[in-house]
Amino acid sequence: MKQLTYIQLFQISFLVFLSFTLLLHTILSYTPTTHLLNHLRRLLHSHIRFSLSCALCALLSLLYYRYTRPHPILLLNYACYKPDPRRKCTFQLSEHFVCRSARFTQKSVDFMRNIYFKSGLGEETYAPSFIFQDDQDTATLKCAVQEAQEGMFSAVDSVLSKTQIDPGRIDYVIVTCGSFSPSPSLSSLIVNRYKLKPDVKTYNLSGMGCSSGVISIDMAANVLRSSTKVQYALVIITESISLNWYFGDNRSMLVTNCIFRVGCAAAIITNDPSRRRFAKMELVHSLRTHHGSDDRAYRAAFQEEDDKGNTGVSLTKDLIRVAGVNLSEHIKILAPRVLPLSQLVYFVYSVMVSVLTRGESKPVVPDFTTAFEHFVVHTGGKAVIEQVGRVLRLGDELTEPARMSLHRFGNTSSSLVFYELAYFECKRRVKRGDRVWMIAFGTGFKVGSLVWRSLRDSCHEGDNPWNDSIHRYPLKVC
Predict the structure, then answer these.
(1) N or C end of the chain: which has fewer CB within 10 A?
(2) Catalytic residue among 374, 407, 426, 464
(3) 430-467 pLDDT, tens per residue?
(4) From CA 275, how far away is CA 189, in angstroms rounded?
(5) Can you tell me the distance from the alpha carbon of 72 to that of 224, in angstroms, rounded to the nearest whole number?
(6) Stated pTM of the model
(7) Is 71 helix (H, G, I), strand (E, B) or coil?
(8) Is 114 known to be catalytic?
């Protein structure tokens, strides 16, 4: 039997009450009049008028609430791009490309080899097409556009198929790609490919680093919340490696060659409450914090030219410290929104003790396992995962999806949080009602959080990127 909502129960109760009141009014209208009955009838008539006034006010309040309350923000479904197996980037292939290009000193080659072996990446990550072409060692604009098209078209085709949403119903297109912004824009590419309606609103996010996947979902949610109409947003999360390969000898820039790989994700977000029974998750909270006012945080990951004019992204030694410090600041804001009362009291008490002892006693980190069943931590690298685990006091079991995603797909930048979510689902770990914390870091320096509530148990899906390898995971990664 279908369970009634509180609003439906109120409506039924109101109708019963109204029917009973009208029945009393009818009976009293035909009752023989005596002094006692006249007095009783006057009292009941007063009661009826008062009750009808209260009922009318309640009904108007209910209608006002129903038509002005924010619509729920629902994740209908998502899809992750899985490149062709011929694009797998093994260590042997990577070393062959580096040596073939003859752009690096032997010290740089040895450094990259050492970083690769310590990175936590496996032998099945994916690289862009130019690395596999023997007749060229650098990418062209055509290669970059091809990389974008392959990832975006595959992910969008898949998510549209799974949600059965007609492209003509899409009201917003949000594309995030940190370091590739061609003209026409990537969102225009999507509009052209899927023949979207003329009044579709498009947004392109760039330069926001690995946090932009979380940020783009937050943006879609804010746009949909501000609308009084039922609408749909298509969010595409990608990154370009082709034009961002570094060919110099600056060690802080060489790291990106070792850990970044090809990946893309797409999601359909809606505020349509009638779609709730078809949706995967509901967005409960979102939070973005920006720490760029601090110079070290601002320059922790920075695109610049080396002394020979080669462009690259420098990952400084401050990056891990910055991630830990700013994560601590971020959770101070998030904690009151998500933690149970017992943990909040404990946290506030520890802060008071820290103030009274002038910093000799440090505030405790709340136990976030009391607020969430699953943690989706952006896998910026092995050291970043370990730092997040230390700050949040998460054991290896809770950081497992992050470490395994880094091993299987490498750092696909902003889309990797959805590859992690796909890991949970392929393992059938997400149950209805479970709370999922998705957190990511980006240049600037930014931290973003999404808190989801699962609306159904995870089930097998034919396009899950983990389908052919999940039986091998988890594995021990040195």
Answers:
(1) N
(2) 374
(3) 999 999 999 999 888 999 999 999 999 998 888 999 99
(4) 28
(5) 9
(6) 0.84
(7) coil
(8) no
